[in-house]
Design brief:
The protein has 114 residues and is α+β, with helices and mostly antiparallel strands. It contains five helices and four strands. A four-stranded antiparallel beta sheet has the order 2-3-1-4, with helices on both faces.
């Protein structure tokens, strides 16, 4: 069954990449996974110093909206890593695409999740 992936790209403020990655890797991604979100890959983008990506997969648009509303509305997020991440972000962009399971597996294998 094809899945909906969300590709979120961040343009970070100068000098914040290491802090952003630490907060994402140590706090946010484990929280996302604990809440049942499928984090396909995340990390520094290959093409620019100040860009970062987060790719998540969902079964449907409804599943995306339900999980994200619950997650981003939670006190665990608001009182947790939210400010450490948001303070580093200059801008971000979301893109939604339907992808085959093989495509998602390839993204995981080629980009890792660390």
């Amino acid at each position: 069954m094809n899945r909906l992936i969300e590709i979120r790209t961040y343009r970070l403020k100068p000098g914040t990449l290491d802090a952003f990655h630490a907060a994402m890797h140590e706090r946010a991604v484990p929280m996302l996974r604990d809440k049942g979100m499928d984090v396909v890959t995340y990390g520094k983008s290959d093409h620019e110093e100040a860009t970062y990506h987060l790719v998540r997969a969902y079964d449907s648009r409804e599943a995306l909206e339900t999980r994200q509303t619950a997650f981003y509305g939670s006190s665990e997020w608001r009182d947790g890593p939210r400010s450490a991440l948001v303070d580093c972000i200059d801008t971000y962009l979301n893109t939604l695409l339907w992808v085959s399971p093989e495509g998602i597996d390839s993204m995981r294998a080629l980009n890792g999740t660390s």
